[in-house]
Amino acid sequence: MSTNENTPQVLPVGTTLDRYIMHRQYAFAFATGELSQLLRDIALAGKIVHREVNRAGLIDLGGEAGQQNVQGENQQKLDVIADVRFRRALTNGGEVCALISEEEEGIIFTGNNKGKYVIAIDPLDGSSNIDVNVSIGTIFSIYRRVTPVDTEPTIEDFMQGGQEQVAAGYILFGSSTMLVYTTGHSVNGFTYDSSLGEFILSHPNIKSPKNGSIYSYNDGNLDDFSEPIKKYLSACRERQYSARYIGSLVADFHRNLLKGGIYLYPSTPKNPDGKLRLLYECYPLAFIAGITGCLAVNDTEAILNIKPTSMHQRTPFYIGAPEMVEELMGHF
Ligand code: AFP
What single-letter DSSP state applies at residue 8? Predict the structure, then answer.
């Protein structure tokens, strides 16, 4: 391990993602470049999905694809397209031996059994927002496989737990497209410049405010929340905090991360385990959260400490500025 591995980022705003990835790779004496290649593959798929999202209204890519995903939700055409794009880029890149995706029931084998990494991905989250031109996003989580290289990967590779992530990130398709990711040292945001076809470092070393005054949840579910959650939300209202809820986790999380806020998706009788998926929604954002100074918990423990038991498992999810999450936890 080189001495500068943990030093703060020194590259200036305006650095391209490629240059940034290369710079980080050189900071690790024994880095092989495989994770770097994988991150480039994700960025490439992100650019392609950016293109599809931006012309969705023009070429009839909105609307439902006429089938349901593993969660029993109607798939949008863009959901399916994003799933295919990421799968293809990660398969062609060669570093990933298997994926799990929100859109598929089982493990997706890439055939690259020499690949050292597996990925859990939600290719296009917040898909009910596609047709109305509202922000959506991709969320991903990367692990180093635990099964031997050159064998077929198994479920064990995905059941390592959130603490074992080697990298995680999201791509926000919003008023601009941004890739935010971490390999565990700092969280950095890159804004896509479509005229150059490059992600450019725009938000170096993101840190969350310690406190905030934004709270984000689906108010239509309020009557179904537990008393502690209701009490916390009523305290937010008494202080006249701003309620902001897009219904795209990536967008709600990103806004709260930069401005200071809390996102809540509690359990309800309809969704007794919550709605959000542990492996490809909650773990990656919790990993990013921890590095930026945010907290991410369910009703009983830190998200990263939850032991995974199945690929598509769900959990209640509270994530945001540390003092806000601590106050919420004080009500449990
Ligand atoms: P969709 O992808 O089905 O739109 O779900 C989005 C999501 O997983 C997350 O991004 C939102 O924050 C949350 O669900 C919204 O759920 P509600 O519509 O129940 O508020």
Answer: P
The answer to whether 309 and 161 have CB atoms below 8 angstroms apart is: no
Do β-strands 214-216 and 242-243 pair in parallel, antiparallel, or remain unpaired? parallel
Whole-structure pTM value: 0.93
% the chain with pLDDT above 90: 82
249 lines ligand 1 (CB under 6 A): yes
pLDDT in tens, 298-319: 999 999 999 999 999 999 999 9
> Tokens standing for 148?
């031997």
* Residue spans of beta strands (DSSP E) within the chain: 64-68, 74-76, 96-101, 108-109, 117-125, 136-144, 167-173, 177-182, 187-193, 198-203, 214-216, 242-243, 261-265, 276-277, 295-297, 314-315, 317-320
- The tokens for 231 are 């009490």
Ligand 1: distance of its center to the CA of 203 in Å?
26
Ligand 1 atom nearest 217 alpha carbon: 20
> Which runs of consecutive H residues, i.e. helices, occur in the chain?
17-26, 34-54, 77-93, 227-238, 249-259, 283-292, 322-330
